[in-house]
Design brief:
424 residues; alpha/beta; Rossmann fold; ten-stranded mixed sheet; binds alpha-D-glucopyranuronic acid
Length: 424
């Protein structure tokens, strides 16, 4: 008995130590990053013409080992405009609310899409599309925004009780979404609640869009990040039906787990013209091999449903992963991509996010395009937006702030030419 207790205690102590996140650069292990330009057969991509096939190979590896396979796109899609108001935001915007139905019958999934487009525009607008965590009604105080009817995690601060949203949450997340400012800068803004696509809890993949696809699940079946990314592509389908949106100039943006999702959506769907990940960390922009802050072990223990089942087998064995996250960024090339970090968000490994962005540069170079334009981690508060890969390190903690948006807008101005005066 005593031996058993002792062994158990030892095991517990050991686990506690093993779970302690590393925040010490000196303890980051030496590692070799897989070269994004080297194909699985060992040969090297030497020009832009060789990139599409290598990109397809990388996407297949991310499907097989990290996020799981995406389903075929042949689900029924029905787009219903349920609200149009061209006097929104004090007359500056046209608000639309759409119900985007995926699949048919009992299991059909209804995603509420909220769109504000600037009234002052001379054609369809470049658009930011981002999923939100708490419901569309939380992004702005506009009383006309519909409240989600789907499952939400309980949160008294946002008026969510018994997994139902309420009016008490209206505008509560407005500080993360400077809608007026985005519209003033000439962009449309579109958002949907991520739980409409797939509720964020582990239910064995029986609800949300997973339920629409009949499949024998295996180690490479899709998880929730795959589901949210798939949903983003369907929302882009829906946006393409609106005359005020220029579907060829849509930036997909996301924070945290939704930053991971934005990268995966942007990598897999080349229709996204710009991809922005904010504080996305492990399984997002941060290099897994650094094992700094959140690790594969930590993320798959707490959030196994975000990934394919096989991903968990790389816990503590990151060097065996056939890809690392710089190749997710590279899979977006030659389209512009932006990675944002926050200085105190050590859990997301800001340096690892920066290094991943840098390690994607050789792929942009294939196209003769500048990458980050800097080898050193920028000072907090400064942004590197001149190249095709943008990056900034904000002071402060894990969050999505107006400062982040200022940099995103600046980068979008360069690459999406939103302002009518800038338009060719
Ligand atoms: C947790 C998780 C992160 C994730 C974050 C979020 O902190 O460990 O990987 O990015 O939640 O999505 O808020």
């Amino acid at each position: 008995m005593r031996t058993l207790i002792l062994t158990t205690l030892l095991a517990l102590t050991h686990t506690a130590t093993a779970q302690e996140p590393n925040y010490d650069e000196a303890r980051v292990p030496a590692f070799d990053l897989p070269d994004p330009l080297v194909r699985q057969d060992g040969t090297r991509v030497v020009d832009a013409a060789g990139w599409p096939a290598r990109r397809a190979e990388l996407l297949a590896l991310f499907e097989q080992h990290v996020y799981g396979r995406l389903p075929d796109h042949d689900l029924a899609l029905d787009v219903e405009v349920v609200d149009t108001d061209d006097t929104a935001l004090g007359g500056r915007a046209t608000r639309r609310q759409l119900v985007v139905r995926l699949g048919s019958g009992e299991r059909a999934v209804a995603i509420e899409l909220l769109v504000y487009a600037p009234n002052d525009r001379d054609g369809p607008a470049a658009t930011f599309l981002g999923l939100n965590f708490k419901g569309n009604h939380t992004v702005h105080a506009d009383p006309a925004i519909r409240i989600p009817t789907s499952w939400l995690a309980d949160d008294a601060g946002f008026g969510v009780e018994d997994h139902r949203a309420s009016d008490a949450g209206r505008g509560r997340r407005a500080r993360r979404w400077p809608v007026e400012h985005i519209v003033e800068r000439g962009y449309a803004f579109a958002t949907a609640y991520y739980g409409d696509i797939d509720p964020d809890f582990d239910d064995g993949f029986r609800n949300g869009v997973h339920a629409l696809v009949d499949e024998q699940r295996d180690g490479a079946s899709w998880g929730s990040i795959g589901a949210w990314a798939f949903g983003l592509s369907r929302l882009l389908d829906a946006l393409a039906t609106l005359p005020e949106v220029d579907a060829a100039r849509v930036a997909v943006v996301g924070h945290s787990r939704l930053g991971k999702t934005a990268l995966w959506a942007g990598a897999t769907d080349p229709r996204f013209a710009l991809v922005i990940s904010n504080d996305s960390g492990c399984g997002g922009a941060a290099l897994s091999r650094r094992r700094y802050g959140e690790t594969v072990a930590a993320i798959t223990r707490r959030f196994p449903h975000w990934f394919c089942a096989r991903y968990a087998s790389y816990a503590g064995a990151e060097d065996a992963l056939p890809v690392d996250q710089h190749e997710l960024i590279a899979a977006i090339a030659p389209r512009p991509v932006y990675v944002a970090s926050a200085e105190q968000d050590r859990w997301a490994d800001p340096r690892g996010e920066f290094l991943a962005a840098r390690a994607a540069e050789p792929v942009y170079a294939l196209f003769g395009l500048p990458g980050l334009g800097t080898d050193a981690l920028p000072e907090p508060g400064t942004a590197s937006t001149a190249g095709r890969i943008g990056y900034h390190l904000r002071s402060g903690t894990h969050d999505l702030t107006h400062e982040d948006w200022e940099h995103f807008l600046e980068f979008a101005d360069r690459h999406l030419r939103a302002r009518p005066s800038d338009r060719r």
